[in-house]
């Protein structure tokens, strides 16, 4: 079953887009996840680098200030700014061949309470998020791209913490353009059984982020990637497996080694 092994921009010193894409190709990656900050201004450079390296862009991580404001902010001006930036990045995704756009509803929320992720205003926030999401989902459908909702763990976010919660939002949005980005680092914190969660929601998951338990490259911690890969493979996953993690040591050595590691685990999961 074909998957794309990808690597996210911004994890290593990269120089320009051309050298970064070439480096990833030489390491053996299949695709690239680019950062959204200033992407519209450098879109042609990214397209040229992707074409010359023969590596497609599989996703866009807003990164930095790619999406300013927040769809869940009390201020309409903040929500409007977030809608504007998301719209811009959706158009970039279309220009890049239909890449998915990662959307995290809320980073480090002001009302964040790590020990009480079921705080009473979640229903209100869910309603607001779905209202804000609706026109963006319609735009994504027209452009032929996907909005990938990414749950974060309770120490980094407040509103969307689990893949199961994201699945509810996908279904209630009613849009085929709203799907889930499952990040194994966050799932390792929030899920008692990552494999079961992946299997249960696989039809909504076209994209997975890879990071070990310590948020370093796969193979540097204790996350059971084999169990996760078994679940993905059995369920028919054929999307992107993208590294989003810290890079220990010399990246020219540790990154290719990590790629060989996850490719071997995926190959084992097919038998």
Highlighted features:
271 residues, alpha/beta, TIM Barrel, 9 helices, 8 strands, 44% helix
Radius of gyration: 18 Å
Question: How can the largest sheet be summarized?
Answer: 8 strands, parallel, barrel
Shape: globular
Number of helices: 9
Seen as an oligomer or otherwise, the chain set is single chain
CATH topology: TIM Barrel
CATH homologous superfamily label: Divalent-metal-dependent TIM barrel enzymes
Mean pLDDT equals 94
Brief digest:
With 271 residues, the chain is an alpha/beta fold. The protein has nine helices and eight strands.
Show the helix and strand layout.
Blueprint: E1 4-8, H1 17-27, E2 31-35, H2 43-53, E3 57-61, H3 76-95, E4 100-103, H4 122-143, E5 147-149, H5 163-173, E6 178-183, H6 184-190, H7 194-200, E7 207-210, H8 225-234, E8 240-243, H9 251-269
Helix pairs in contact: 1-2, 3-4, 7-8, 8-9
